[in-house]
Amino acid sequence: MKQFNFKQIFVAAAILTTGLYACKKDSVNDIQIDPPAGKYDNGFFVIGEGSYGQSAGAVSFYHYGDDTLSIRAYEKENPGKILSNAAKTSTLQFASIINGSIYLMSKINGPIVKINEQTLKEEARYVQEASNWRSIIQVDGSRGLVSANDGVYQIDLNTLTVQNKLTTVGAVNTGDMWKKGDYVYLLQSNGAKIVSSSNYSLVKSFSNINRGFAQTPNGKIWASTGSRLIAIDNNLDTAGVGLAVAVGSFGLDAPTRITASTKENAVFYHSGKAIYKYIDGDKTSLAQPFINITEDPFMVYGAIRYDRNKDYIVVNGIQGYGAASTVNYLLIYNASTGALVKKIKYGGDGVTTDFTKIYFPDLAIFH
Question: Is 59 helix (H, G, I), strand (E, B) or coil?
Answer without folding.
Answer: strand
